[in-house]
Design goal:
Layout: E1 9-13, H1 16-26, E2 30-33, E3 43-47, E4 57-61, E5 80-85, H2 88-100, E6 105-110, E7 114-120, E8 126-132
Parallel strand pairs: 1-4, 5-8
Antiparallel strand pairs: 2-3, 3-4, 6-7, 7-8
Length: 154
Amino acid sequence: MEVKELGHLVLYVRNLERSAAFYREVLGWQQILGAEEGLHFPAAAFRSASNRTHHELLLIEVGEGAAAQPAGRRVGLYHFGLKVGDSDEELRQALATVEAAGTKVVGTSDHTVTHSLYIEDPDGNEIELYIDVPGVDWVNDPALIAAPIRPLRL
């Protein structure tokens, strides 16, 4: 078997309306299906502007009483990354967008191959918003992927 690509993410959320608004309004994803379309459970499907596949994200509502993401070191999802461009200017625009929406930035990093902002969705799922740094040849020098993390200077 050969995996061809990462297809999609499915996240459990406490409040579908709140989470759908975040992914739609803050991150700009296109909502293609929602609970009102007669699904058997409260859910919403999204895809990015790339339209590379039928859906890239599915949110499934589990209710306000669902347990929070545990803090600290744990097994499971740490974060997922969303490429927002190829320049620091595009990353600065992403930063302005999330700050204007009142979304807290929980971290920033210069990973040599990427420049990254870290935010959380309404349920505490961590999301990396990143750009690939132009001119970094990680294909021919894969060790660059594991370069020491430096402070991000935007």
